[in-house]
Amino acid sequence: MFRNVAELVELAESKNQKISQIMIEQEMEVTGKTGEEILRQMEVNLDVMEQAVERGLKGVKSHSGLTGGDAVLLQEYIKKGNFLSGELLLDAVSKAVATNEVNAAMGTICATPTAGSAGVVPGTLFAVQRKLNPTREQKIEFLFTSGAFGFVIANNASISGAAGGCQAEVGSAAGMASAAIVEMAGGTPAQSAEAMAITLKNMLGLVCDPVAGLVEVPCVKRNAMGAANAMVAADMALAGITSRIPCDEVIGAMFKIGQSMPSALRETAQGGLAATPTGRELEAKIFGLPLMKK
Amino acid sequence: MKYKSVFDIIGPVMIGPSSSHTAGAARIGRVARNLFGREPKWATISFYGSFAKTYKGHGTDVAIVGGLLDFDTFDERIKESLTIARQKKIRIKFIEEEAVTDHPNTAKIMMGDEKGEMELAGISIGGGKIEIIELNGFVLRLSGHHPAILVVHNDRFGTIANVSNVLAKHQVNIGQMDVSRKEMGKMALMTIEVDQNIEESVLEEISALPNIVQVTRIVE
Known about the structure:
Chain A: Its cofactor is [4Fe-4S] cluster. The structure holds 2 protein chains of 2 kinds. By secondary structure, chain A is mostly helical. Chain A has helices at about 5-15, 20-30, 35-60, 70-80, 85-105, 120-130, 135-155, 160-165, 165-185, 190-200, 220-240, 245-260, 275-285, and one strand at about 110. Chain A starts with a helix and ends in a 7-residue tail after the last helix. In chain B, helix 1 (about 20-35) runs parallel beside helix 3. Strand 1 of chain A pairs antiparallel with strand 1 (about 15) of chain B.
């Protein structure tokens, strides 16, 4: 059983296996289920992710009216062809947004690792698949690799915005996604770890400050940038760039930063963007009165 | 290790918008329902910390009531749970607590009907994973992700051995076990997480043992 990223990479390298395979084998050990059962269970999650993206790309609107429709805008923009960054990157961003718009509209999604950060992993997966042409099995493996890295973060730090801020949610999701992109693109387990370290380093300190307490503003756009961050970091790792701070130490830093974050910035809607004049105004408009008196 | 399965990370499939505040809350409600063993006639739900500040925005209220109605995290009826509860004439009350708890996402549920009452506290630790930390004043640690047996008993020597002997006889493996008591020699609670669902006959056998007050179970 691996407890940290170093052990995970060591296991994969010594057995000459992919990280996804290590995760599947550990799951078999822990649950006593067969590999086949575990793959099928993950396939159900993949199906839900596909349906959520599809639904989001048709355009949804949340109950509050704060979010919805941005995934569509971005797809239309891509079609015009005048974009500056990159087609695959924007496609990932759009699909991450699509998923979170569905989530905000109380639609069905698969938490990866949480609902508020559910867009990043599927967003990047369904974008890079256009270039890498993975089999269905490989798409399922993508989720196990993401899961392996998320597993380490969850057990050594946190994946809860209330406990560790948005760095623990979208930050974790982005790190997980970048590691999985690297594996799908043919990178080594060590490169997956580097990608996650690079991604997470750039998410450190991100606070959880949802306007009106809703998982909408800024969550949807944070998923967008989490996906972008994951794509760029994956390319950097595949180019051979390494993180000076080892992945596990970055996770440790994230944990400590989360602990020292004031509660106003940990999913209480009392600080940050939630406490801006516009944030308060939106809150009052949605609930008829400000929820937070202070 | 708090998280054991990859499906704690990739999953659950759920109705949005928040894994901790919606799916986790639904799970706390559902474990409470499971332990109570029937639909309650009333429930008073207290929210603490982040739950208290943001429960309306996250649908924590509809989710926890959905759980009390035995809905799973992906059940579309969660969205209508308050209306459904009203139609079933279940009296629901929410309280926003100011007290600071150890975990920012804490909910306490008092529930009951004419036959009995139950009090339970749960925390939502992230990604939809929960822990039940208090039951009728007993401190415990229960994930709700595995089948479990809860045994209220008198705090006397040999009681734990008797219960585990019955489980051994029926070839039931214990995954995790916790014992908690309010005062030495008074009432105590055994929480036993097991690998498979327990049959009614086994529960009856445990109930018949000396010093056993009450036996309930959580099925997977």
